[in-house]
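Can anyone check this?
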Amino acid sequence: MNKKSLPTTQKQGKARLGDQIRNIADRLKQETDVQITATSRILGAAAQIAENHDRLINEVVDMVESDLNVEKQVYQKHIYTIDFLKQQFKTLRDAKAHFNLKVTSWESLANKLNAASSQTITIQNKPQSNQGLVDTNTIRGEYNFNNLEKLTVFLEPDVAEMFPNSEAVNEALRFLIRVTSKNY
């Protein structure tokens, strides 16, 4: 080999090595950018989840507070009045849907609710058999609200501790209905 070709080969080798290093650095920068973008998206999603969680908690708290206020008003009055029902619901249709009753007027709604709130819950440690728990008010899966005074519900002792009367049970079930209907 002549003397001039050796330095050219070394220069070319150094140039290739420099190009390879630049290529590796560019790829690392691109990978770092991808990782930064992915991390940013993950953090954004986590923030959105936290925000949604906080919003849901606030909604549940608002619903519970609303229920407690309604329950307080009901306990204070111990009777449903037409004015009270009209304050709570915009239309008779909304009230009927909320209580799942078939009525034709505010007055009949108040009468049925007052009849329902006067019923008592029987607490029994253990039913003797499931066959003895036949509900005479059930007609094809619907309740006959004309005979509510005959409706008896058996609660286990641990449940009865939390729900000492029919109003507490009804409010808890209405709350559950609202929560599940909002989620669907």
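Reply from J.R.: I decoded it. Residues 91 and 159 are 34 Å apart (CA to CA).
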